[in-house]
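Pilot study result, target chain (213 residues):
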Amino acid sequence: MELSYYKGCDRLSIYSFHQVLRTNNLRYLVIGADEYAEDFETLPIDEELAASYWAIIYDEYCKLSEDNKSLMYFGLCSELLYLETRFKMASMLLGQLIKRLDAPKEVIELYLKELDGWGYKINRDKNITEQINLMFVKLKQSQNKIRLKTDEVESYKPEDDDEPMTLMDQVIALELALGKNKIEPKETSVERWVGMIKNLKQTNESKARNVRK
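Predicted structure:
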């Protein structure tokens, strides 16, 4: 029976890709191969053909993406910048608002709309002083989120002598960053994996650019 091989990043799973990187075993490129089968290690592959496909796949990957850890690191830095700016702006607005509750309604509404834009929505139908106090509680919660994000950034910070992240470390980090319950590496193509990470980075950079305007 003639074996068929994966020939591109659009179908090869990120799991198999990492297995080839980790073990240099080109049998992970065979379509339908079961790594747990007893004959997996003796599967009679065409080494030269498999190697040529791997070269194509790896070249395609290099064109699609930079190092995953670097992508995640810069994406997290952008997200942290947004969270810190959001916290500073909301703190300033709430601090000014609490001192100007006797101002005309039109002025109060300007503050409320600006706070809305930063995700601190105050219910106009309820007591405004109580609502502002609730927002200060929310601010404290934001501080906790910033601390957690800072720790996350530090854990991703590239170091020359740093050990490369395992695939599972990357999966967990991406699940947390995207808010996904589960990413299945054996069912996620290399192309889609790189796309998710790039999308995360672009989203966070867009937030950061909007903050700077």
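One observation from the pilot: The chain has a mean pLDDT of 84. A full batch analysis is planned for the follow-on phase.
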